[in-house]
Design a protein that fits this description.
It is a single chain. This protein has 329 residues and is mainly alpha-helical. It is 60% helix and 2% strand. Strand 2 and strand 3 form a beta hairpin. The protein is globular and about 85 Å long. The N terminus is likely disordered.
Length: 329
């Protein structure tokens, strides 16, 4: 399998004497380790990053609680009021029987509506979309196996299908990287007065625009036009949640009555859209992370602590092995 080598961490080789002059492990010179208060710089940065990440998660938890909890309580109150009104209009129905009926009809994604009685959850289109969401880890959860055999097969299918899909996406992205970086090279040649970083930003902006148009704007517009109950925000939300493989499953296209005649075709097209969108997403992220100035994760690597500004003890063998492993990823 081909390996993506990021330009930001590739050593430069001096052809004149046949030795890698930037290789810190092969050189007899010493190198200084950047430390803050006696602790490696990357350790401080990683610790601060972890604190910031946990703070971000807790802040998100608090934010969504404030935004959604009140609405949830209002909806529950409204549902409870409707149940009481139903029992008042039908005194022969016991409250316990109504609750049991509600529990039964909410059983694991099976629609209780009459119009869905003859529409199987496991038609070709539905099944295709299900398999795509499994192997891409999107996982809407709108349908799922209910039999023990189906659950076991789903596990085995995912164990094989997820790596299979990763290889598939990686292979397509690798093929698309050749013309992508050829375009970058042409930009660099035609814009010699600009810094390479600026040229790469222009190239990234172009790639981002292609991604936005073909993976976000056009699909969102189509879903907005095809789904009668969706707003523009609903369509945009569904596309974003899908392509980021979050897959909450609160919006599923193709389940409205107007879609019944071509439901399988619609569902299959949604599955193909997910694959196409994930390829463009992966390609755009690869271009982004190939710019060293934007790849903030590089600053958390231990080898970024090493500097030629001053001399210290020679690097330990474990450090050399860690750097070699990082450079080949």
């Amino acid at each position: 399998m081909s390996v993506t080598k990021y330009e930001s961490i590739q050593p430069n080789t001096n052809v004149g004497n046949g030795e890698d002059q930037t290789s810190m492990c092969s050189s007899h010179r010493g190198y200084k380790i950047r430390r803050w208060m006696g602790i490696r710089r990357s350790t401080w940065l990683l610790s601060l990053y972890i604190v910031a990440y946990i703070t971000y998660l807790v802040g998100g938890c608090t934010l969504f609680t404030c935004l959604e909890q009140g609405v949830e309580e209002d909806i529950k109150t409204g549902i409870d009021l409707r149940k009481k009104e139903f029992i008042a209009r039908n005194p022969g129905v016991a409250k316990e029987d109504l609750e049991k009926l509600i529990d039964d009809i909410m059983y694991r994604g099976i629609s209780p509506r009459r119009r869905d009685f003859n529409n199987s959850n496991w038609s070709f289109g539905q099944s295709f979309l299900f398999t795509v969401t499994v192997v891409t880890t999107v996982g809407y959860g709108h349908i799922h196996p209910m039999t023990p055999t189906g659950k076991m097969i789903c596990i085995l299918y995912a164990v094989i299908g997820i790596p299979f899909t990763l290889i598939f996406l990686s292979a397509l992205v690798q093929r698309l990287l050749a013309p992508t970086f050829k375009l970058l090279s042409s930009f660099i040649r035609k814009l010699p007065h600009m810094d390479t970083f600026q040229v790469r930003l222009i190239h990234l902006a172009l790639m981002g625009s292609v991604f936005m148009v073909f993976s976000i704007i056009i699909p969102s517009t189509l879903f907005y036009l095809l789904e009668p109950d969706w707003t523009v925000l609903d369509a945009l939300y569904f596309v974003f949640i899908s392509l980021t493989t979050i897959g909450l499953g609160d919006y599923i296209p193709g389940d409205s009555p107007p879609h019944l005649p071509y439901r399988d075709l619609y569902k299959t097209s949604v599955g193909l859209f997910l694959l196409f969108g994930l390829v463009l997403t992966s390609l755009t992220l690869t271009v982004f992370y190939d710019i060293p100035q934007l790849n903030l994760g590089l600053h958390l690597h231990r080898h970024r602590d090493i500097s030629e500004d001053g001399y210290d003890d020679k690097l330990p063998q474990s450090e050399c092995q860690s750097m070699t492993s990082t450079q080949t990823q």
